[in-house]
Predict the 3D structure of the following.
Amino acid sequence: LKRLIIVGYGFLGKRLARVLEKYGREELLLAGVANSRGYVYSDQGLRPGELEDDLSRHAKFREKPPIEMVENSDADIAVVLTPTNIRTGEPGVTYIRTALARGMDVVTADKGPLVIAFKELVSEAESRRLYLCYEATVGGGIPIFSLARQYFRRDKILSIRGILNGTTNYILSRMHFEGLPLDLALVEAQRLGLAERDPTLDLEGIDTACKIVILANALMGMDKRLSDVKVAGITRITSEAMMAAKEMGMTIKLIGRIEEGELTVAPRLVKLNHPLCVHGTLNAIQFRASLMGELTLIGEGAGASTLASLVSDIDWILRMRGGL
Ligand SMILES: NC(=O)c1ccc[n+]([C@@H]2O[C@H](COP(=O)([O-])OP(=O)(O)OC[C@H]3O[C@@H](n4cnc5c(N)ncnc54)[C@H](OP(=O)(O)O)[C@@H]3O)[C@@H](O)[C@H]2O)c1
């Protein structure tokens, strides 16, 4: 029997808690859940349906620093679903360090810690023979790292290209198909809840750059940081430029690329019939590997499908620990 705690009880945390309730209690117990203000924890496990949407209304809610839950629990797996901060990696990086130090395997969807401290966290996990899984950090529900773990084990990934930010892809798609100017397409994306109120990280290509850094470090053995990525966003793309691309049977996409050791993010002309050319909020990632040649994966880059990645990481850990 394994115990699991969730740090971060927002969009993903709440949904994951509900999915975990469906696991057999002899297999996996959800022992604790924390948000920014406190936590609910029970060694015997929380009962299905026991968690409310508002955690603080739970009878056992402790209004204490949530790190206490990680420091004091004997959980086997910590799932870190805290908001991303790409400048400091916090609060996720402290939760991950603490969980590893306590001997827990870790699953996270938070890019911040991996962008800031990839090497440190991976080495820490390896030296303690723990798993640190982060399928959900890049491409939402697209199985990238789990595929690589199995399929590319004996192959060598030579280059990676991808559309890795659903917000900008949605905006560029509206510009392409409806001739909208960028500012109107952005307002539409915000109205539909597809763009943050402050969309700077998306529009300026920084979110894509973070994902490129994680891919380079995780899949190509590099040791890159955000400052190693040459980044240009989409803010200067005009309707006229988009229409000109369209007339040539092409469109403009924000492409993150790892090629010959170079990491770049930039708007690029892409042929409409190219496998990477997906529209709306879809993400696409293309690997070129020495045995396999080219492989393109397409899927939802965020939203509820991200749960599939979290569950796949948790199942992988349970299997490796002999629990499944
Ligand atoms: N949503 C997606 O589709 C998606 C996809 C891929 C990756 N991600 C990443 O996954 C992570 C979680 O995403 P989300 O959409 O679930 O975020 P969210 O809805 O904003 O939820 C974040 C949760 O973290 C809690 N939190 C904030 N500061 C904390 C702290 N210091 N200690 C403990 N908990 C803290 C928040 O507490 P309160 O409830 O008290 O505010 C909230 O419960 C983010 O890093 C995001 O970038 C999300």
Q: What stands out?
A: Residues 111-127 form the longest helix (17 residues). The two ends are 10 Å apart (CA to CA).
